[in-house]
Amino acid sequence: MAAADRAARPLSSQVIEAMPCAHPFDEHLFERAKLQWQFGEWESLAAIGRDGLAHHPERATISLLIASACIQLGEPDAARPLIHQAKAWGCSRTLMARILISGVHNSLARTAVLSGREQLATRHFRAAVQIGSPGTDVPLLARARTETQQQQLRRHAHLLANPVEGRRPEDGVITGENT
User: Fold this and answer.
1) What share of the chain in percent tops pLDDT 90?
2) Per the structure, how many domains does the chain have?
């Protein structure tokens, strides 16, 4: 930009243009969080670090998505402050309702899978994606969500049937007393 053009603009816009970003953030975090939510990768989504979130332009939505993952993992106490933070950061009530209602459908779908009601599960997974992520390729995402959730349920069922296999070394020594 020519010096004459810059001089004609107000000083405040010149200062903003010259200032580097004071708080860097992961520019791919929002897309990653959204994709993890769409696929139902709750553990990965819940594990997203909150440290750099405060300066991210999509922080409200990311916080809400992380909260929804915590709910799906059975951790409502971890979700509650994230929901409050999302609201404080300006997350719309409509988006909050869509994501939380979507979570209800996801839970209903998982229950249907466990009770052997596959068609009902498919309808609920589809509703979960359609409500929470309108305007996307719902059939594609619903298939992906269904497969991911079924894999998670199979893994959890296996761990329940074989609890020793689910132990990590840092959980402590496995003895006859704690198996």
Assistant:
1) 66
2) 1
